[in-house]
Specification:
- With 274 residues, the protein is α+β, with helices and mostly antiparallel strands.
- The chain folds into 2 domains: 3-146, Jelly Rolls, CATH 2.60.120; 152-269, no CATH class.
- It is 28% helix and 22% strand.
- It has helices at 16-19, 152-158, 165-171, 179-195, 209-226, 232-247, 263-269, and strands spanning 3-8, 11-14, 27-29, 36-41, 47-52, 63-68, 73-75, 78-81, 94-99, 108-109, 125-132, 140-146.
- The strands form 2 sheets. Strands 1, 2, 4, 6, 7, 10 and 11 form a 7-stranded antiparallel β-sheet that branches.
- The longest helix is centred in the C-terminal third of the chain and has 18 residues, at 209-226.
- The radius of gyration is 19 Å and the shape is globular.
Length: 274
């Protein structure tokens, strides 16, 4: 089972339940320059989406990300932090992606064998560590850290009506965005890929853009479904289009379990949906 842990000082807190599903749960946190966030997965991974609630960080800060190589945490070769705005990390909801250093392979490990996590026992996971260069705005609420294949802006390109207040309020009072539906759509897509043995876990997907268009249509089907019989045809059409796009999608799948996508893997997956 995947784990998301927060360490402040000597205390390690498992927040997986609060931030991995985008439900009614969340986790409020004061992030300092000594706070460490650990993410453990069954297989190596190269990105996640992070969603925070109303309070956003406005303090100048840089995010750093490392991964466990069997003996120590190593800096990634490159990091892209799309939560950063005006040099402040976690100022936005967004994607964080990285490339591990080719010189040091990511290694599976039990947490008890990692000095920083030796007080907890979680087995056979690939760990990374997220830190920040300065103390961030107080009382940030972590709502979701996980996989996501499309954004609201990408949804609105094909379905501009969903940006309108009538659709948002018609779905749910005081609704302002479609994050929950997009996460549900992403999980459904990953489940379909697992069911057909294309992937073992969704973390093998190296680039969300290969599934973005499928996610848009799957999200639309979920939205239309909420409106019942009056939108049956639109729901069916969006569902059919999502299935068609998934059939001919070309996501980058990590077959070598190293969180990188290479030319050999390209040849393995070129015709995987046919």
């Amino acid at each position: 089972m995947d784990r998301i842990l927060v360490k402040n000082g000597a205390t390690v807190i498992d927040v997986t339940h609060f931030v991995s599903t985008y439900t009614d749960f969340s986790y409020e946190i004061d992030i300092t320059d000594t706070t460490e966030i650990y993410i453990g997965k069954m297989l190596p991974f190269n990105h996640f989406y992070i969603h925070t609630e109303t309070v956003k960080n406005v303090v100048s800060s840089n995010m750093s990300l490392e991964y466990w190589d069997g003996s120590q945490f190593r800096d990634v070769a490159s990091l892209t932090d799309e939560t950063s705005d005006s040099a402040a990390s976690l100022a936005l909801n967004g994607f964080v992606s990285w490339v591990p250093d080719k010189a040091y392979r990511w290694q599976e490990e039990d947490s008890e064998n990692i000095a920083e996590l030796s007080t907890v026992n979680y087995y056979d996971l690939y760990w990374n560590r997220v830190t920040f260069s300065s103390t961030l705005t107080a009382d940030i609420v972590l709502k979701y850290i996980g996989q996501l294949f499309c954004t609201d802006a990408e949804l609105f390109v094909e379905f501009p009506q969903f940006s309108e207040e009538d659709w948002l309020d018609g779905f749910e009072a005081n609704k302002t965005e479609w994050t929950a539906q997009r996460i549900t759509a992403s999980n459904l897509i990953a489940s379909k890929l697992r069911a057909t043995d294309k992937i073992q876990t969704k973390d093998q997907i190296m680039d969300r853009l290969g599934l973005r268009d499928t996610c848009v249509q799957q999200t639309a089907a979920i939205i239309y479904n909420r409106f019942g019989e009056g939108r049956v045809e639109e729901r069916k059409e969006a569902g059919f289009e999502a299935a068609s796009r998934l059939k001919y999608a070309f996501p980058k799948i990590d077959k070598d379990n190293n969180a990188r996508y290479n030319n050999k893997e390209l040849s393995k997956t070129k015709h995987w949906t046919r």
